[in-house]
Amino acid sequence: DAGVIQSPRHEVTEMGQEVTLRCKPISGHDYLFWYRQTMMRGLELLIYFNNNVPIDDSGMPEDRFSAKMPNASFSTLKIQPSEPRDSAVYFCASSLDPGTGNWSGNTIYFGEGSWLTVV
Amino acid sequence: KQEVTQIPAALSVPEGENLVLNCSFTDSAIYNLQWFRQDPGKGLTSLLLIQSSQREQTSGRLNASLDKSSGRSTLYIAASQPGDSATYLCAAASANFGNEKLTFGTGTRLTIIP
Question: For B28-45, what is each residue's pLDDT tens digit?
Answer without folding.
Answer: 998 899 999 999 999 999
